[in-house]
Each structure stands twice: as structure tokens, then as C-alpha cells.
């Protein structure tokens, strides 16, 4: 009951967009009851909102280890992976093919992969402006992907846009 109370308090802070306090309460819930997948899932979602993607991924993976059919946390895990530019590695549509959020996640991942493929081809053609465009679009979906940022910075430098390249790097 104590852990559930902490979770509910975390939910209240999350709803108010006070993610730091939500994080604190979800952590208390986990400390009280460390084998509950939803507590890790909630904290993972909170960490995503705080831009702490690596920690969020750890919590999401722990939640999946505890309950691999928990669709909501699979979506959070997918968001974490996508933020790093990782290919989708979850079974969202297998679990619930009518889940519109899962369908959107798959569509977003396909979009990122498409921009990545176009960028590879255009880099070989030395069309660096188009690579920068593709990386900007991909980074909208994968904001923590160092690989995309480095490629963008490299292309900006090759275009002679050194201050922008330095900023991105």
C-alpha cells in the first residue's frame, strides 16, 4: 500500500508536469516494492520528460524484464531507443495490433530509417546540404542520437559552416 501511495503521488506530480517530484515519488515506490513493472515504467516516462534518456532506457528495460507484455512501457522503451537512433526492437504490434500509439511509433521509426538511408546515399554523392536536412529531420525523432549529430556537424564543416558545425559537435 505504501508503494502504491508513492506511485499515486508521483502520478499527481507527473500530471502537473513537475517531473522532478514525480521522479522522487516513483523512486520511493521502487525502493518500497522493487518488483513492480509499472513503477519502473512510470519512472522511465518521467526520465524521458526530463531528457535523461539513458536512465529512462534502463528503467524501461527493467520494467520489460518484470513484465514483457506491458504495452505502455514497451512504447516508452521504444521512445528511448528511438531517441538514440536505435532501430525498433520491441513487439508492440504483436501485443496489440490495434494500438494507435504503437502504430505511430513504428511509423516514426520507419521515418528515421528512411532519412538515415537517404543521408547515406547523399553523403556518398557529396550532397552535404541534403544530409544536413535529413539529419535535422531524423533528430526530431531521435534527439539524443550522437551518430546523427556527428554526421550533421561533419557535413556542416564540409559546407564551410564552421560555427554551426562547432555548435552541433
Describe it for me?
The chain has 169 residues and is mostly helical. It contains 10 helices and no strands. α3 runs parallel beside α5 and α4 packs antiparallel against α5. It starts with a helix and ends with a helix. 38% of the residues are buried. The model has no long low-confidence stretch (mean pLDDT 84).
List unreliable stretches of 5+ residues.
Answer: none
Shape: elongated
Main sheet attributes: strand count, strand direction, barrel closure: none
Tally of structural domains: 2
Oligomeric category: single chain
- Per the CATH scheme, the topology name of the largest domain is Serine Threonine Protein Phosphatase 5, Tetratricopeptide repeat
Top-tier CATH class of the largest domain: Mainly Alpha
Helical percentage: over 70%
What is the string of helix and strand elements? HHHHHHHHHH
Describe, in short, the structure shown.
This protein is mostly helical and 169 residues long. The protein is 78% helix and 0% strand. Helix 3 runs parallel beside helix 5, helix 4 packs antiparallel against helix 5 and helix 8 packs antiparallel against helix 9.
Topology (elements, then pairings):
Elements: H1 2-15, H2 19-32, H3 37-49, H4 53-66, H5 71-83, H6 92-95, H7 100-124, H8 128-141, H9 146-158, H10 162-168
Helix pairs in contact: 1-2, 2-3, 3-4, 3-5, 4-5, 5-7, 7-8, 8-9, 9-10
Amino acid at each position: 500500500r505504501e508503494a502504491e501511495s508513492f506511485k499515486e503521488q508521483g502520478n499527481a506530480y507527473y500530471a502537473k508536469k513537475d517531473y522532478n517530484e514525480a521522479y522522487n515519488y516513483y523512486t520511493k515506490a521502487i525502493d518500497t516494492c522493487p518488483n513492480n513493472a509499472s513503477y519502473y515504467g512510470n519512472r522511465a516516462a518521467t526520465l524521458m520528460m526530463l531528457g535523461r534518456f539513458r536512465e529512462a532506457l534502463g528503467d524501461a528495460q527493467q520494467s520489460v524484464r518484470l513484465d514483457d507484455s506491458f504495452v505502455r512501457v514497451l512504447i516508452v522503451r521504444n521512445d528511448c531507443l528511438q531517441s538514440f537512433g536505435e532501430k525498433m526492437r520491441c513487439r508492440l504490434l504483436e501485443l496489440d495490433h490495434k494500438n494507435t500509439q504503437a502504430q505511430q511509433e513504428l511509423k516514426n521509426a520507419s521515418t528515421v530509417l528512411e532519412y538515415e538511408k537517404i543521408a547515406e546515399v547523399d553523403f556518398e554523392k557529396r550532397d552535404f546540404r541534403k544530409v544536413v536536412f535529413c539529419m535535422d529531420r531524423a533528430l526530431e525523432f531521435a534527439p539524443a542520437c550522437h551518430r546523427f549529430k556527428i554526421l550533421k556537424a561533419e557535413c556542416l564543416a564540409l559546407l564551410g559552416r564552421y560555427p554551426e558545425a562547432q555548435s552541433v559537435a
